[in-house]
Design goal:
By secondary structure, the chain is of the alpha+beta class. It contains 7 helices and 6 strands; from the N terminus they run αααβααββαβββα. Bound molecules: zinc ion. The site of zinc ion has 7 residues, from loops.
Length: 160
């Protein structure tokens, strides 16, 4: 009995005469769990943003342009600051006033192998535009996207 409870613990213990509330929980958790896949945790966001900074295809960018990229991963100002500090500590970027120099010879995103395109209804993570196909960058820490075709070029730093 107890072991069975543990097994079903994720869905909360089912008490026979509380079926109603169980059903409510299920219907709430279903769209919630879909959302959860989109909601990246802080560690994953940090890792993704650092990989993104490591893959930028330009030598230097304005700080605002760099933040624009980071904002595709997180909109939290504190996490953005943390990411910038970590990137600087690790030597991925160096700051020169409002200009950010990226590490030369960083590993550029290889579009053919690292960007996947999926058909479907998406919303661009950068500009919010509706898309019929989403571009996703596959990083070690996970996927970043979806992006439209022009935004993905900006995100990887091909265009400023
Ligand atoms: Zn876009």
């Amino acid at each position: 009995m107890f072991a069975r409870r543990l097994l079903t613990g994720v869905h909360r213990t089912v008490i026979p005469n509380e079926r109603k509330s169980t059903a409510v929980t299920d219907s709430e958790s279903e769209p919630g769990s879909k959302r959860a896949q989109r909601q990246l945790d802080r560690e994953t966001k940090r890792a993704l943003a650092l990989e993104l900074l490591d893959h930028l295809e330009v030598d230097e960018l304005d700080l605002s342009a760099v933040i624009d990229r980071i904002e595709t991963v997180t909109t939290s100002p504190s996490l953005t600051r943390e990411i910038l500090d970590t990137a600087e500590t690790r030597g991925l970027i160096s700051r020169d006033g409002a200009r950010i120099h990226t590490r030369r010879g960083g590993s550029f995103v290889r579009f053919e192998s690292q960007v996947v395109t999926r058909e479907g209804e998406f919303q661009c993570r950068r500009c919010g535009a509706g898309l019929s196909a989403g571009h996703f960058i596959r990083f070690e820490a996970g996927e970043l996207g979806p992006f439209g075709s022009s935004c993905i070029r900006k995100v990887v730093g091909r265009e400023e």
